[in-house]
Amino acid sequence: MTLDTITKGAAIDIRGVSKFYGNFTALDDVSLRVEPGEFMSFLGPSGSGKTTTLNLIAGFTDLSAGEIRLGAQSIGHVPAHKRNIGVVFQHYALFPHMSVAQNVAYPLKQRGIAKADRARAVDQALQKVQLERFAHRYPSELSGGQQQRVALARAMVFTPSLLLMDEPLGALDKKLREVLQLEIRRIHRDLGSTFVYVTHDQEEALVLSDRIAVFNKGRIEQVGSGHQLYTRPETLFVGQFIGESSVLRGTHRVGADETALTVAGATLVAPGKARTDAAQVILLRPESVMVQPVGTGPKDGMTNILGGTVREMLYLGAALKYEVTLADGSNVIARTPTQHEPFAIGSAVELAWNPKDGTLLPDDGSTAGHEG
Amino acid sequence: MKLNLPRLLLGLTCLLIAIWLVAPTLVIIPMSFAGKKSLVFPPQGFSLQWYENFFTNPQWFGSLIVSAKVAVMVAVVATVIGTMAAIGIERLKGRAGGVIRAILITPMIVPGVVLAVGIYAVYLDMRLVGTWTGYVLAHTLLAIPFVVIAVGANLAVFDQRLETAAASLGASRLTTFFTITLPLILPGILSGALFAFVTSFDEVIVSLFITSPELKTLPVQIFSSMTRDADPTVAAVGSLIFLATSLIIGLGLIFGMRGRRA
User: Fold this and answer.
1) Are A93 and B167 an interchain contact pair (Cβ–Cβ within 8 Å)?
2) Beta-carbon separation of B164 and A93 below 8 A
3) Is A308 in the B-facing interface, judged by CB distances under 8 Å?
4) Domains and CATH numbers, chain B
5) Cis peptide before B42 (omega within 30 of 0)
6) Looking at domain A12-236, what is its CATH homologous superfamily?
């Protein structure tokens, strides 16, 4: 057993899985497949069911309904210690009475690996996280970042085909988080194991993952690459959770292959037929909205025009960020390349965008939801 | 450093309290070297005969052996039962855990005489008076609360998530207990064991009820000696125990400090 040989990652198949705590539904009939060797993030606000799903895969909590398969094996009722899945916790969970080397050797000891092989594997794992010089230190003598590196080494030293991470960088500061994100990506490439990564930080999910599953209220809203989620969100919740956005609410009229929405007195067009009679919204990304002087009108395909007043203007170097208040009181965020003369706060402007850049979505009532 | 009145008063008060606390214990040391067979302070004359008497008289030395044997057995039994109970209570959480904890701790709250009468009545019936089993059972009952409290305090700060982590690394629940939980709550277990030992070694009320001429613990021997005559051997015993406990606590403090520095 050595970390040099690339482990074949195993697929996870979650089928119709539910978890109830008394009357509370933590997870409601969730199905999901993670491909072998894939880096999948579970993204969502706290209490959305992402950590519950991770705990079910790891075997820390019992299934209420459904089935979980790891590779060809159904693991739903296998005890946690027999699942052979590596887990990295937010709180590190290093054993304080053991040195770094003893911590990393622990899973190998449980598997009855001979002492010499154990020492070699521990050395390799510590090298992978650049902590070989700290083998004889105790966890309390290490910084948070170093402790989490040890936890990572301990979780991968037995070459599990699946590695679960529960907000592993949640307790670290921003700079260290970015460094460790790169390390985790590198380790994922080196190992070839399947990674499942739980986070509430959309940026982290975008940086790390092949695909992201967005959780909300015990269900999965959408699964897709970061690009898919950003450009083609299927629900308003996903659209708002990933990246910055503005939401236009109004009354809609269904057309042949497009839908017209009346917002603050203006008629706006969005591609696609509204799927339900329920209220519809248009989701706009800041970079697709142009800010122009009043009376400019449509040009270059930007045929959706809305009047408003500049409420806030931020100079970001390469770009300008505007917050424009509409006649109905709602706000639209626009990010434009730096112009010769920025519009002053309080000036009347026109917002323009290409109808195909707006996304028509049923209104699920979610409001701009995520912190930072 | 400037000398000021409040500081001086504080120091003086502390000194007086310290004297008040240790004086009764220190008084017995000179009395143990008394020349004549009378327990008076200050003692008259000097001799080592009371120490000699303690080690050569089977009444005295035999009771020390009985006490030590009983206390060791009690320490083992009470520590095992108390530790398991503390872990069970910690896992139960909620109301059930609180009730069980309260029940286990009652021997500490119920007056010793009440317990002693109850135990005596049961023991008469079951022919346990004056037996090893009788002593160990009764003392264990009294010692369990101390273990439950000591181990429980340690478990309250033990991070149970470490057990989850151990499971994810392939350790069964039993292995997890012996490799993770036990080493981390060992300080609580050891202090619980020490408390249990002392509780038994020190116990006099229940022991007086269940004693027999053939099987006597040291406190019972001291008590009956005191009521019969004023034998300074009592002072010698007291001095020896004082010396032993001071040594144990002193060593504990030295090693404890060293451990913390490492």
Assistant:
1) no
2) yes
3) no
4) 58-225 (1.10.3720.10)
5) yes
6) P-loop containing nucleotide triphosphate hydrolases (3.40.50.300)
Listed in sequence order, the residues at least 6 apart from B257 whose beta carbon sits closer than 8 Å to its beta carbon are none
Phi, psi dihedrals of residue A140, rounded to the nearest 5°: -65, -15
Q: How far is CA A180 from CA A168, A176, A372, in A?
A: 10, 6, 19
Could you tell me which of B108, B207, B203 has the C-alpha nearest to residue B150?
Answer: B108
pLDDT per residue over B194-242, tens digit each? 999 999 998 999 999 999 988 999 999 999 888 888 788 888 998 998 8
Q: Say yes or no: ipTM exceeds 0.90.
A: no
Q: Which of residues 90-149 of A touch B (CB under 8 A)?
A: 91, 93, 95-97, 106-107, 110-111
Q: How close, in Å, is residue A40 to chain B by CA atoms?
A: 20
Chain A hits for B172, Cβ within 8 Å: 79, 81
Residue of B159, B160, B169 for testing the chain A interface, max A β-carbons within 10 Å:
B169
Q: Which two tokens stand for residue A100?
A: 């770094």
Report the distance separating Cα A360 and Cα B1, nearest Å.
79
Residues of B with CB under 8 A from a CB of A: 159, 161-162, 164-173, 175-176, 179-180, 183-184
- Residue A276 confidence (pLDDT) above 70: no
Q: Nearest to residue A92, comparing CAs of A27, A24, A36, A169?
A: A169
This prediction has a pTM of: 0.82
Contacts of A91 in chain B (CB under 8 A): 159, 161
> CB of A155 within 8 Å of any CB in chain B?
yes
For residue A307, CA distances in Å to A235, A252, A324 come to 27, 19, 9
| Local confidence band at B121 (pLDDT 50, 70, 90 cut-offs) | very high
Domain residue ranges in chain A: 12-236, 245-362
- Asked whether the predicted pLDDT for residue B146 surpasses 90, the reply is yes
The CATH class of the A245-362 domain is mainly beta
